[in-house]
């Protein structure tokens, strides 16, 4: 019954995530239309918050509802146990279906994690060499402007376009022909963009987002939100580069030149990506104004949608709460069930855990352990004369059935 509880709780969390994740995607679509593109940092944070919540939904649902059932206490009393209800059962086919759902989710998550590790190994194998003096000087000069010089170490690497890789002292990997392939203004704009990634520690954030994506790989909204986060992250770095003196036109032209030779390592966040390039170029060359009233309406709409999403997340599990409660009681996580029963022959009491009678009493007199005879779900309580006093059946969820004594 422990497996039945775990599998059903996980399956419920995954199915619930499909609904809740769809609500989150709808929320982001509405907010992305309301928040002006001239506020890239706000857009990135809102998109990132939506994605983080979606990635955490399966684990949050499992944890919250397990805690909810655990909060029922150390013991559950059944003062008037029913003699009609059969014990809780889960068919082999039903358990197999739940196990299949859990296995598919786990296998998909493992595949995506292995893919991420393979990309990491591919980055580690890239040949690197010391950067020439003119590149070091350019990075020093631009790094001081954007506040990221001490965070990166430039190097020449076998990559198609500049990219920042690493954490505290990241490597700024530059193609060997970068200093000659692009005009000076475009080079500076691209370097400022990459230094903005280093200042924001985007490599580490993107790595965490990829692990989050592995948890909800089955949800189309997760992929859409991840792509939105990636677009807004690039837009933030574009804005930071422009804010430090890069010409929007030069940056756009540099991105277009690099687009044809972009890297295949997704976690490295190469400067130009075909999937988002047209959107970024449009934002650079046609910036939009941001009316203050629109931002206020956006905040209100975001709060309403957030409350709606939370309400949906909390209300939906109530449809199956009774069964989940019984499965929890029957599982290895469940509490001890106290049964106080009475029939014409008198009263008796039991303490049951996972279908095992751990203590018993007849007419408030404790029954020694050696006089509690249990074989499977059949239990016989022997009286002082060693003759059967009470004969009953016990279910895993703490319910009992017996023939009333005369």
Topology:
Layout: H1 2-34, H2 40-70, E1 75-78, H3 92-124, E2 128-130, H4 133-146, E3 152-157, E4 163-165, E5 170-174, H5 178-181, H6 184-200, H7 202-215, H8 220-243, H9 248-259, H10 274-285, H11 292-315, H12 321-330, E6 336-343, E7 346-353, E8 356-362, E9 365-366, E10 372-375, E11 378-382, E12 388-394, E13 400-402
Parallel strand pairs: 1-6, 3-5
Antiparallel strand pairs: 2-3, 4-5, 6-7, 7-8, 8-9, 10-11, 11-12, 12-13
Helix pairs in contact: 1-2, 1-3, 1-8, 1-11, 1-12, 2-7, 2-8, 3-7, 4-6, 6-8, 6-9, 7-8, 8-10, 9-10
Structure write-up:
The protein has helices spanning 2-34, 40-70, 92-124, 133-146, 178-181, 184-200, 202-215, 220-243, 248-259, 274-285, 292-315, 321-330, and strands at 75-78, 128-130, 152-157, 163-165, 170-174, 336-343, 346-353, 356-362, 365-366, 372-375, 378-382, 388-394, 400-402. The chain has 2 domains: 1-124 and 203-264 and 271-334, no CATH class; 336-402, no CATH class. It is built from 12 helices and 13 strands. A hairpin with a 5-residue loop joins strand 11 and strand 12 (388-394). The strands form 3 sheets. It has a 5-stranded mixed sheet, with no helix packed on it. Helix 1 (2-34) packs antiparallel against helix 11 (292-315), helix 4 crosses helix 6 and helix 9 runs antiparallel to helix 10. The protein is elongated and about 100 Å long. The two termini are 34 Å apart. The chain is of the alpha+beta class.
